[in-house]
Write a structure and sequence with these properties.
With 277 residues, the chain is α/β, with parallel strands linked by helices. It starts with 5 loop residues before the first helix and ends with a helix. Strands 1, 2, 3, 4, 5, 6, 7, 8 and 9 form a nine-stranded mixed sheet that branches. A hairpin with a 4-residue loop joins β1 and β2. It is built from ten helices and nine strands. The structure holds ligand C2E and calcium ion (3 copies). One calcium ion binds next to loops. This is Diguanylate cyclase. It is found in: Membrane.
């Protein structure tokens, strides 16, 4: 639509200028979001379909902006990465998520895991690994219950890979987020100290309609098997998608079909209900 006429071009340029202005403004707000208490963590359960049980949760960030209302993490995380605030925000999420899981472990007898999204930018901070081990100590959460999700990225530097290896040595699990959507995923698996693959929701979406998506899913599941990696599918919204995945060997599932992301209280209730015999 933006190429229809000359005037729409100038409109487009105005839009762009406005966007960069509001971006600047939003960046300033984002820097203050933590101290203003505008950030919240929600949790989405991960289900083992064979057991019919919740086995873990993923922590997902929410920003309740004072005037703009709810802003999606896909909008503000890239901005936080650009302006560097992601280091501070990422640490806040990690501490909050670990503390929450430790609380749940105290309240319930279930070895649930906590998955936290990690921006590759956080790995540039040379104190990152120390921070993680400090947070584990502080919160009392055992490392084996913590998992870091990181989006595959070919451009990862040796220092960043080393940091991931150190995290593995601490006893954390590492999963490749959005697997299959970015670069050459297979060579990536050779270089990376990963333990789990997250099958991207874009493939799951086509389960009923697209032969190629079904083929991708089968291929990715067999890659996980060959590399002896765990696998979980995300974005599962229908029973058909879930049964296709289970039938093809992927029984760990995350998605609206089972649970939407929920606040801590709701998550606790959902887990308790799920654990009842
Ligand atoms: P992601 O890590 O791939 O997270 C999955 C996204 O899919 C989440 O969006 C989740 O709410 C959504 N989702 C889950 N189940 C379904 C489903 O059945 N159908 C559909 N359509 N969507 C589903 P969300 O919460 O908006 O997060 C978007 C992205 O923002 C995340 O994608 C992640 O890359 C990033 N993000 C979120 N929290 C954090 C964080 O604490 N740190 C970092 N670095 N990134 C984060
Ligand atoms: Ca994720
Ligand atoms: Ca993902
Ligand atoms: Ca994603």
């Amino acid at each position: 639509a933006k190429k229809e006429s000359g005037s729409s071009y100038s409109f487009f340029n105005q839009q762009m200028a406005m966007n960069s202005l509001s971006k600047l403004e939003m960046g300033n707000h984002l820097r203050q979001s933590l101290e203003r208490g505008e950030l919240e963590i929600v949790y989405q359960p991960q289900v083992d379909c064979h057991l019919g049980q919740i086995v873990g949760v993923e922590a997902l960030l929410r920003w309740n902006h004072t005037t703009k209302g709810y802003i999606s993490p896909s909008e503000f995380i890239p901005l936080a990465e650009e302006i560097g605030t992601i280091v501070e925000i990422g640490e806040w999420v990690l501490r909050g998520a670990c503390l929450q899981m430790k609380l749940w472990h105290r309240q319930m007898d279930a070895p649930l895991t906590m998955s936290v999204n990690l921006s590759v930018k956080q790995l540039n901070d040379e104190r990152f690994v120390d921070k993680v081990s400090q947070i584990l100590e502080e919160t009392g959460l055992e490392a084996k219950y913590l998992e870091m999700e990181i989006t595959e990225n070919v451009a990862m530097k040796d220092e960043q890979l080393d940091a991931l290896r150190c995290l593995r040595q601490l006893g954390l699990a590492i999963s490749v987020d959005d697997f299959g959507t970015h670069y050459s995923s297979l060579s990536y698996l050779k270089r990376f100290p990963v333990t789990k693959i997250k099958l991207d929701q874009s493939f799951v979406r086509g389960v009923q309609t697209d032969d190629k998506d079904r083929a991708m899913i089968r291929a990715i599941i067999s890659v996980a098997t060959s590399f002896q990696l765990h696998i979980i599918a995300e974005g599962v919204e229908t029973e058909e998608q879930a049964s296709f995945l289970v039938a093809n060997g992927c029984s760990h599932i995350q998605g609206y079909y089972f649970f939407r992301p929920m606040n801590a209280e709701q998550t606790f209730a959902a887990i308790q209900e799920n654990l009842q015999p």
